[in-house]
Amino acid sequence: MAQVEKIASAKCFQGYVCRYSHVSSSLGNLEAKFSVYWPPTDKVPIERQPVLYWLSGLTCTDENMMMKAGAQRICSQLGLILVCPDTSPRGAGLPGEDDAYDFGTGAGFYVNATTPGYSQYYRMFDYVTKELPQIMQSNFKVDPSKKSIFGHSMGGHGALICALKLPNEYCSVSAFAPISNPMQCDWGKKAFHGYLGEDKESWRQYDATELVQQGHKIAGKILIDQGTEDNFYKQKQLLPENFEKACQSAGQQLELRFQEGYDHSYYFIATFIEDHIRFHAQRQVFVLWLQQLLGEESVFSTTCREQVRNILETNIDSDGWKVFVCGGDGTCNLVVQVLQYFPWKVGVVLVRVSRNLRGL
Ligand SMILES: N[C@@H](CCC(=O)N[C@@H](CSC=O)C(=O)NCC(=O)O)C(=O)O
């Protein structure tokens, strides 16, 4: 088990904000820090709690979100753990690493770098999608099947690519002012060139708009908030419209909300953070019924699977509690198969309900 040391702790809304340090294998065995908000345990009558992963933007550390967004109040209320990793490895000592705010330290862009030097340390994609969840799972009581991811700006880009590349890992994804099409903006071009080199094909694997165009998709809706007075939006670093267009063509559900007068700062994030946290909470717990649409089939066939997927995609949006798949006698086997196929979606399964629910 990875050794994790608690280096700070403060009580907050009856829970605790804690900071941890560990040696990260993804980040070239450098020391990495992350912050966690632990909601009060008496509010959550379950053994293993769901986790929200927050990815911050350029120049941030694991502490920005905890200090500025005011997310703890609502996480405390809803019983959600909030985990905030750092935005890059620190102290690799690579040439050019500390020359600018938008590359190197504090600007890891959530990719696995392949360029000389950087490839040894800058593996933030693996860090946030594999190593950190593994650490959470092996050291603490978290539910590995209930993870959601969100972020801001560079971290919004990070959240979108994590969810699109690993659609079965996350229950939901949202973003504040994400860098939505990094291949087409100055920040992204500089970062991808520095971390991935010349090969544009490898850039496409870390660009949310490109991923959607390639057919990557998540079940349910993506939520994005964008302030209209955001200077980085005006400078065309964020390009949410490109992402929106790709989603429309690909049939990916997206709610892109333009928020009048808001800028790129944490004042904007603090204003809408409750919406985003509720959005994720609703998608982490719901009831799944094995409905009669599966008929008498005892095998969870491709057709059945697609039917269930369609139900989830059309219903999960509204408020998360509206997804039902119900099962009558003899459908236990199907329920088990549904669970295996959609494990991240299943909150509760009801079986052995009366056949007269057939018409539901
Ligand atoms: N220092 C830079 C701008 C840096 C900046 O605005 N960073 C944003 C994220 S931008 C995209 O990833 C941020 O979150 N800053 C930290 C904060 O606490 O506000 C410049 O001067 O242009």
UniProtKB/TrEMBL annotation:
Residue stretches making up the DAGKc domain: 297-348
Catalytic residues (UniProt): 153, 230, 264
Catalytic activity, EC: 3.1.2.12
Domain of life of the organism encoding this protein: Eukaryota
NCBIfam families on file: fghA_ester_D
PANTHER family named in the record: S-FORMYLGLUTATHIONE HYDROLASE (PTHR10061:SF0)
Role, per record: Serine hydrolase involved in the detoxification of formaldehyde.
Protein name, as recorded: S-formylglutathione hydrolase
Organism in which the protein naturally occurs: Galdieria yellowstonensis
